[in-house]
Design brief:
This protein is mainly alpha-helical. The protein has helices at residues 2-24, 79-93, 97-108, 128-134, 142-159, 164-173, 175-181, 188-205, and strands at residues 28-32, 38-41, 50-53, 61-64, 67-70. Helix 6 crosses helix 7 and helix 6 packs across helix 8 (188-205).
Length: 218
């Protein structure tokens, strides 16, 4: 009986070791979609346009054995988990959680690893300089990203006295563009951005976005 048990244990250890070896040598793929967003995966992508990523140790990739794997922190969270974070942060800062969810849906489609061609990062697509200003150490961490993004959105709502469309336009195109045109800039991207956020807000709530009521400051 002991001999059989020992054999079973050894076989299990061999199988586990082989799994780790396969993981360690797995290739990392970099995939870019039509919008320029970049994601990383250690599974062969279905998309035809991708490159094999040359790995190095960092927040996205972790070293194991003689290879690398995608950090669990960078795996896609479920929509439910992201919505829970949005609810918590919205309550913390007095911002309508449905507006936060609509911005996340528009900005990144719930991809915590989304990176735009301009360098915007994470769920709420924080630019590097904005992330630094907000004290966000890791823009690909869902909780940090949403916390920083909501604080940025709240400051814009305060600046534009609760006018949601103006705040959204500034979030997308920058405050200087809103100031230059004294309103929503005539950029097609920004015009579409504001419309999409409003559309998703309506889907989440079943009602139209009230343009001056997304903020409930204490």
């Amino acid at each position: 009986m002991n001999i059989v048990t020992n054999i079973c244990v050894k076989l299990c250890l061999i199988v586990i070791s082989l799994c780790f070896i396969e993981l360690a040598h797995a290739e990392i793929y970099q995939v870019q979609d039509d919008q320029g967003n970049i994601r990383y995966t250690d599974s062969p992508p279905l998309e035809t346009q991708y490159t094999v990523y040359t790995p190095k140790e960092g927040p996205i990739l972790k070293h194991h054995g003689s290879g690398y794997y995608v950090s669990e922190e960078y795996q896609r969270l479920s929509m439910h988990e992201i919505h829970n974070l949005a609810d918590q942060v919205g309550q913390k800062y007095g911002i309508d959680a449905s507006l936060i969810k609509a911005v996340i849906r528009t900005e990144s489609d719930y991809d915590v690893r989304a990176t735009s061609h301009k360098g915007a990062m994470g769920l709420m697509q924080l630019m590097p300089e904005t992330a630094r200003y907000l004290g966000v150490d890791n823009a690909y961490n869902a909780a940090q990203n949403i916390d920083g993004g909501v604080r940025h959105l709240r400051s814009l709502l305060e600046k534009y006295q609760g006018r949601v469309e103006m705040a959204l336009a500034a979030y997308n195109a920058g405050e200087s563009a809103v100031q230059k045109y004294n309103g929503i800039p005539p950029f097609p991207e920004t015009q579409q951005y504001v419309k999409k956020v409003k559309k998703y807000y309506s889907l989440f709530t079943g009602s139209q976005l009230q343009l001056a009521s997304a903020q409930t400051l204490p």
